Amino acid sequence: MIKRSFFGLVKPKLQYEIIDEAQAEPVSIKTSKQIMLYIDQSVDPSLENAGENAGNVLLKTGDQVKTGQKIAMTDDAADYLLSSQSGQISKISTFVGIMGKNYTSVTIDVDGESSQNVDEGFKNVCQAPSLENAREFLTGLPGQPDFNVFFDSEKPVKAIVVLGVDDDLLSTTNQYFVKNNIIAIKTGVDLLCKITGISNAILIVPQHLEQVAGSSGAVVKTVDSEYPSAHPELIMRHILASEDGESKSKSGIAFFSAEAVCAIGAAYNTGKLFLEKLVTFVSKDGNKQLVSVPIGTPLQDILNEFNETLNDGDRVILGGPMQGISVFSADYPVLPDTDTIIIQDKNQITERSDIACINCGECVRVCPANIQVNQLIRFLEAGQYEEAADQNDLFSCIECGFCSYVCESRIPVFQHIKLAKHTLESMKAAEESNA
Ligand code: SF4
Ligand code: SF4
Q1: Does the Cβ of 358 fall within 6 Å of ligand 2?
Q2: Which of 43, 122, 223, 236 has the smallest number of Cβ neighbours within 10 A?
Q3: Which CATH class is domain 276-348?
């Protein structure tokens, strides 16, 4: 897939996956016993330092939960999840995840009656579509649509952009919806335009899907097949900025994935919430298969379906190979934004090294943000994060992960960048909260 540079003079090229006629239909996987829903406490900063109390969601252990019911920390929580199954809450706990983020985990024992025990909250309001009821009931849909962006009076939204492309390599989730569900996308686009009052809807697709995308009712624009051209930040810079100079900044644009738009349209059309996530599963032997799985299903259920075993030292990557995060347990659940799951045998894992930067410049050549990554990494390795931000454009990084991929010294540049950004943002939030 990679074309290496010739004598280091040419930028290496990575191509996105292309969905074609030979693409097998998704395998439908059922949850066996339990689902787990992870609620990010950082969405409500007042809960970040709440210790044990932060685990107190509205529901408690022993409560019955219906399919489609909201699982939230507080009555007016901006962040919530929707239970994809009915059952009984068997455990609520808190844990510290990647970058020290606090989460509340809610485990639900599935009762096998999910199609009968359905929460009626959304059905009661779906006849009168509005931004308010979309925000109240649909944020936990697959693709995790964000409606809060429409409530920011300082940054009025001028365009709705639907991503019919997949941001990371190997994933084909959004392409699948464009290729197979274009009418559902049209329904979702029409609804979003209606409830927001915004008529400017743009559908971004890879070139091979341009024709089918024409039936969406949205303005169609294409991106090329070279990574990371489908990154939202680059779409904004290269595709949207050309038609509207003001679109150069993120304000003014609401992004939705094609999967989320389909789910929004289906929800208002039927009164039912569709809570299955379409994920590309890549097994140790490199085979790829699309799977449709209820949100919250533990990875172990997917591994079982494909007779895949996770041994000591094997790695699970949630997300694509460039931007994904590693977890080492099959207990982790499928989340509303999980597009790809990659299983790597421990023998396939390229160990990171402690070799110093050799100044080869590969990272600089590939960086789409034009950052002098070879200089940036020196500050980051020394823990000089403020200098990295002030002198080396740390916050211009769009987090594509390309620099880590090409690094001759196998330095985890991308991970250094994420840690530095997270540390500075946490310091800023703490200062603001103290003030
Ligand atoms: S992760 Fe950031 S620094 Fe690295 S190549 Fe991408 S944009 Fe550049
Ligand atoms: S960080 Fe890695 S890719 Fe960049 S100049 Fe140094 S050795 Fe080369």
Answers
A1: yes
A2: 43
A3: alpha beta
